[in-house]
């Protein structure tokens, strides 16, 4: 299953250099990290959040959970984990396949500060068997996320 067509189009239109990384089928960012033999701190995962006013994407290291209090403060909205139905209906994708590109879904994006320490990020690509690797600075330029400190160790 190749990377999501809309993601490929977004990256190409914006002239973002990226590398498609094939791996065995994985359902979590932790598995993606283990399978590709890269640190959890370099593998990002996307979490869909539901607020009173909006949906949001939180992008954080594979080995972290969301601090909803910190995210609520960043969003100016009380946020919690979105339901599986929100993912399938609003994002038209499955759990575990959310690409951390809010521009694809017209959603605001929050990125955890810890990910900014990496030169490159390994990101889910809308496929259970492929990820994309790209320069952190290119991701930031493309998505213009709100930076915060909301990833807490599992």
TrEMBL record:
GO molecular function: aminoacyl-tRNA deacylase activity
Pfam families: tRNA_edit
Domain of life from the UniProt record: Bacteria
Record protein name field: YbaK/aminoacyl-tRNA synthetase-associated domain-containing protein
InterPro entries xref list: YbaK/aa-tRNA-synt-asso_dom_sf, YbaK/aa-tRNA-synth-assoc-dom
Source organism (scientific name): Candidatus Doudnabacteria bacterium RIFCSPHIGHO2_01_FULL_46_24
Gene3D superfamilies, per database record: YbaK/aminoacyl-tRNA synthetase-associated domain
Domain named YbaK/aminoacyl-tRNA synthetase-associated: residues: 23-142
């Amino acid at each position: 299953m190749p990377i999501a067509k809309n993601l490929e189009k977004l990256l190409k239109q914006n002239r973002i250099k990226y590398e498609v990384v094939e791996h065995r089928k994985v359902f979590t960012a932790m598995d993606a990290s283990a399978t590709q033999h890269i640190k959890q701190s370099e593998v990002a995962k996307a979490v869909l959040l539901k607020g009173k006013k909006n949906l949001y994407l939180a992008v954080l290291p594979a080995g972290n959970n969301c601090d909803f209090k910190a995210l609520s403060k960043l969003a100016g909205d009380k946020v919690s984990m979105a339901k599986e139905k929100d993912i399938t209906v609003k994002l038209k994708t499955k759990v575990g396949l959310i690409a951390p590109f809010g521009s694809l879904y017209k959603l605001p994006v929050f990125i955890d500060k810890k990910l900014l320490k990496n030169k490159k990020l390994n990101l889910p690509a809308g496929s259970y068997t492929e990820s994309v690797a790209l320069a952190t600075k290119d991701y930031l330029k493309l998505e213009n996320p709100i930076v915060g400190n909301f990833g807490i160790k599992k």
